[in-house]
Design goal:
Blueprint (H helix, E strand, L loop, with lengths): L1 E5 L3 H9 L8 E4 L8 E4 L1 H5 L8 H7 L4 E3 L3 H15 L6 E3 L4 E5 L4 H4 L2 H16 L4 E5 L2 H11 L3 E4 L5 H5 L12 H9 L5 H5 L3 H8 L3 H8 L15 E11 L2 H21 L2 E12 L4 E12 L2 H15 L6 E13 L12 H18 L14
Parallel strand pairs: 2-4, 7-8
Antiparallel strand pairs: 1-6, 1-7, 2-3, 5-6, 9-12, 10-11, 10-12
Helix pairs in contact: 4-6, 13-14
């Protein structure tokens, strides 16, 4: 009863929806043109030429000298996301976002209103394409893991339906690279021992998995068998919250952002100290005229790092700052807490492990000298 809507390479998809003439051109979304700049989102034409996310911009230009570079348009991305949220909200009261172009809809209890879930998925895909100009992938499955693999399998566009009871028969012949958590590093390791398909990994026993992947490989093994780990139970009512009241009302955005960044770091430090991650982030702003506005975001994958919390918190802040009245304060809350289980590339030392090590080192310093002693969440877009 899960629908997964995925819009491949959301950044370039938004640029094309805004200017259809870009569809036939090779371009990438990238911040600046410095030598160390990375490709954030390649266009379909650029991808066919071998350009990938995370590639150095200088390398991409060597591969494709005719490559165009477009700066990220945060306003357009935010507007597109809001427009998609408006469409999906009409189909289900329970929608969770995973990144910027990925949405999971829990369709339990909706069949009397909309009919079979696969019909709803088809209508949803049609609306997203007709009204917003995005040609995404939509999949129906019994859980988020299978639905996620299904949209990856049919990307960049299409409709898939995996009936209950057929999860294994669908998953097993799929390339192991489609499994969430398998990045380039672990894919190379799996291929080196002739594990090509998800079924190859699912067919191993735990002892075999431990022998060449170690304890972390057990999580991938569960996913290959279609099992979603939930870990130990955490009270759904438990929250981590920071309330801030300014000495003098603020109107300057940079000051509000800096205060929120500090709240992210305090909440994040407590979160990690307790070995938890959060799925829902909420921000409530209080204004000088007594009005209070709240906005929340619920993620498919829980997060715990300062940089992750800061990035989502800024999105909430930008969405709420629509008034020019002075700001008295805010409350930043983390909820839907659960044990911290990594969900990215579980074996990529150059990315996930590096961020984890940096965060661990920073937290060690904070534990000794105080939370204010060091900050890394200034990646609030490099500020």
């Amino acid at each position: 009863m899960i629908i997964h809507l995925s819009i491949d390479e959301f950044g370039s998809a938004v640029a094309i929806a805004k200017d259809p003439s870009l569809k036939a051109l090779p371009f990438v979304i990238a911040q600046g043109s410095a030598t160390r700049s990375l490709v954030l989102s390649p266009s379909p034409v650029a991808r066919r030429e071998g350009i990938r996310v995370g590639m150095r911009l200088s390398h991409a230009r060597l591969l494709l000298p005719s490559l165009f570079v477009i700066e990220p348009d945060r306003c357009a991305l935010l507007q597109a996301r809001k427009a998609i949220e408006g469409v999906v909200a009409r189909y289900s009261p329970s929608v969770t976002a995973m990144g910027t172009g990925s949405f999971f809809l829990d369709m339990r209890g909706t069949t009397r209103l909309f009919g079979p879930v696969v019909d709803s998925a088809a209508r949803l895909r049609g609306e997203i394409h007709s009204f917003l100009g995005f040609d995404g992938s939509v999949a129906v499955a019994s859980n988020t893991l299978v639905a996620n693999v299904a949209t990856r399998a049919i990307a960049p566009s299409g409709l898939a339906s995996i009936p209950p009871g057929e999860e294994s028969s669908f998953l097993h012949p799929q390339p192991v690279t489609l499994l969430p958590g398998v990045g380039t590093k672990i894919a190379s390791l799996l291929h080196s021992v002739n594990i090509i398909h998800i079924g190859d990994l699912a067919g191993l026993d735990e002892k075999q998995v431990r022998s060449f992947l170690g304890p972390k490989g057990l999580e991938l093994h569960k996913r290959a068998r279609g099992v979603i780990s939930t870990g130990k139970a955490v009270s759904t009512n438990e929250v981590i919250e920071r309330r801030v009241r300014f000495a003098d009302p603020l109107i300057e955005y940079p000051l509000a952002k800096a205060a929120l960044r500090s709240a992210c770091e305090e909440n994040g430090f407590e979160l990690r100290t307790r070995g938890l991650a959060a799925r829902t982030l909420s921000l409530a702003l209080q204004w000088i005229d007594g009005k209070e506005q709240t906005r929340s975001i619920t993620l498919s994958n829980p997060i715990a790092l300062d940089t992750q919390l800061a990035a989502h918190a800024e999105i909430l802040l930008q969405a709420l700052l629509t008034r020019r009245l002075h700001l008295l304060g805010f409350a930043f809350r983390l909820s839907r807490l659960e044990p911290d289980i990594r969900t990215g590339d579980l074996f990529d030392p150059e990315n996930e492990e590096r961020r984890q090590r940096l965060q661990t080192a920073v937290d060690r310093i904070r534990s000794r000298y105080g939370i204010e002693s060091l900050s890394i969440s200034g990646v609030f877009h490099g500020k």
